[in-house]
Each structure stands twice: as structure tokens, then as C-alpha cells.
Amino acid sequence: GNPLAISIPPTLLISALSVIPDIYKVVSPEFKNAGDIIYLLGETYDEMGASEYYKLLARKNKNNAIGNKVPRVDLEKNIKTYHVLEEVIQKELIASAISVTSGGLAIALAKASVGGMIGCQVSLAEIPGEVSTVNNALFSESQGRILVSVSRKNITKFEKLVNKIPSAKVGEVKKDTKFTITDPKGKKIINTNIKKLYNLYHSFSKKMAWIPLEITIK
Fold first, then answer.
1. Is 30 exposed, middle or buried (0-12, 13-18, 19+ CB in 10 A)?
2. Count H helices, E strands: the chain?
3. Residue 88 and residue 91: Cα distance in Å, rounded?
4. N or C terminus of the chain: which is more exposed, having fewer CB within 10 Å?
């Protein structure tokens, strides 16, 4: 019956439940098929404030400089993107879809590749929006973006629908386990493999799982 203080970072948790009319139209986040084309829906800007990337730099430099240009939510643009996404899902035109959130585009690509244990080759040359550096293109946390993969047989129908919103073809799912990202000039800036990403991800999650909550009794 005594009050407890649980010392964890403040976290906003929003849960949503819904009925799915057709479970066969559920789209999961991982890449599935070699040869599928990868598209980015939505725009990327220099919105790095409080991002995972800046927080990492702040920890390394032992300061609190996490930037001040935080992502802005454009409700009207985002709703249009989500409506188009829903349409291509209902027409069964995409193989995977993952939102671009914490960590930005680089992390979304890594998650999709590790989830399917399949490689990808991606270029930053055509991403919609306006970014001033390669790091910003990789790690900006601009809102309302979705990374999808599309079978080649569905490309014509898919592109006709996504022409309504900012979107671009950014790469291809590969049959090997290589994970490659090139800058707008074609230079490789990330060149690794899925097994390494898998091990890094799971070593981090296992380490975090053993961190106890700090609980104090008043």
C-alpha cells in the first residue's frame, strides 16, 4: 500500500485497436522478395532536433546539444500520404511498408532488411524534400514518411496512385545479404551486411532487457 516512484524517462504511449476486415491484406514491415523496388513516400527535411542521431552525438561529446529544429507535423500532407497508402494496400500493390520514425530512413531500411534477412541497395539521390547533408538524409526524423517495397509487376499501377503525393523510387531489394546506401553522387556511404546488422540489433536489445527499473519507496 506504500507509494512507489518509478524512475524512467517520461514516455507517451498511444495504443490503437481496430477490426481488420480482411487479414490477407495486412502488410508487414520486412522486405520479402529480391527484385522488389523500394519507394519512399513523404518528404525529408533538415529536421534533426532531438533525433536519435543528435542524442547519440550528445552522449559521445558529453553535452546536451541535441539540436533545436524538431520535426513539424503537416497534417494535411500526412493525411494525403496515409490515404494513398491505404489505397495501395487495399489494391494489394505493395509487399511491405514501414514508417520512418526514430533513427530516420537509415534505421527504417535496416529494420526492413533485418526483418526479412534480405539485402537492399539504396540511393539518396532522389528522396523527396530538401536536405543539406547526407547525414540529415539518413537520420532526419521528418514525420509522415513511409518506406514501401513493390513487386515489379505492380509498379505501373503503384506509381500512378502515388503520383498524388511526394514519393520517389530509392532502391531495390537484393537477393544477397549486402546492405548498401549511396549518396547523391553514387558514392557508397554505408556498405555492410544483414548478419552484422542483425547481431548489432539483438546485442543492443538483449543488453537493454537486463537494465532494471530504478524503484524507490517513499
1. middle
2. 6, 11
3. 5
4. N
pLDDT tens digits along 28-50: 999 999 999 999 999 999 999 99
- The mean pLDDT value of the chain amounts to 92
Tell me the average pLDDT across 112-139. Answer: 97
Three-state secondary structure readout of 120-175: EEEECCCCCEECCCHHHHHHCCCCCCEEEEECHHHHHHHHHHHCCCCEEEEEEEEC
65: β partners:
none
Residues linked to residue 4 through DSSP beta bridges, in sequence order: 217
b/e per residue, 33-54, with b = 16+ CB within 10 A? eeebbbbbbbbbbbbbeebbbb
Task: Determine the Cα–Cα distance for residues 14 and 42; give it in Å rounded to an integer.
Answer: 23
Cell numbers linked to 204 = 543492443
Q: Could you give the CA distance from residue 70 to residue 168 in angstroms, rounded to a whole number?
A: 24
Q: CB–CB of 181/190 below 8 Å?
A: yes
Do strands 178-182 and 119-123 pair parallel, antiparallel, or not at all (unpaired)?
A: parallel
Average pLDDT for 23-31: 95
Supply the DSSP symbol for 25: G
What is the pTM for the complete model shown?
0.88
